[in-house]
Amino acid sequence: MNTLSYGLLGLLARKESSGYDLMLRIQPFWQAKHSQIYPLLSRMEEKHLLSSHWVQQSDKPDKKIYAITEKGMQKLREWMYQPIAPAVTKDELSLRTFCLWLTETGIAIDIFEDRRIGYLEKQRYYEQILEGIPEDTRQIGSKAFSNYILATKGLLMAETELKWCDWVLELLRQQQSITNSDHGRTKFETLS
């Protein structure tokens, strides 16, 4: 079983879901497409880690709902004792930042302004999640505790990324200002 399989089991341990709903629910943790998820669900069902039933819908095609079995719960508990793999980083902004010297300052500012908007949206998203978690449910042993610490992690990361982005934008704008004043001076000196 791969990490995505365990992630799907973890989501199903909280709530039975369709494959499509699982694809949406896993996104904050793990980027996965339906072409990855559906074959895993079939294999886990064959191994009796999941069960399923069909729900008829009048206005849409019928949908298959998955639920975790006791065997699946046991497999998920065993996974909690396994060592955690090193984090995998895929960050296009970092790659572009590494190549920033190849572009104009204005384009660099646009890149970071766009990303800043995304960080602000993430910040608001995690703040809303945290507002919805009552204080008295934020203790270990409750599902809300996991939500609380993950949302706090997401918020702290968004705030840190936002702070970094603002710092880079300040540097870029200073550079743009210096460049613009140098061009203005050169034009003025040329006229005199």
Automatic annotation (TrEMBL):
Which domain of life does the UniProt lineage start with?
Bacteria
Question: What InterPro entries does its record include?
Answer: Tscrpt_reg_PadR_C, Tscrpt_reg_PadR_N, WH-like_DNA-bd_sf, WH_DNA-bd_sf
Cite the SUPFAM superfamilies for this sequence.
Winged helix' DNA-binding domain
> Which Gene3D superfamilies does this UniProt record tie to the protein?
6.10.140.190, Winged helix-like DNA-binding domain superfamily/Winged helix DNA-binding domain
Ranges of residues in domain Transcription regulator PadR N-terminal: 8-78
Q: Which residues form the Transcription regulator PadR C-terminal domain?
A: 89-173
UniProt-recorded name of the protein: Transcriptional regulator
Q: Could you read off the lineage of the organism from its UniProt record?
A: Bacteria, Bacillati, Bacillota, Bacilli, Bacillales
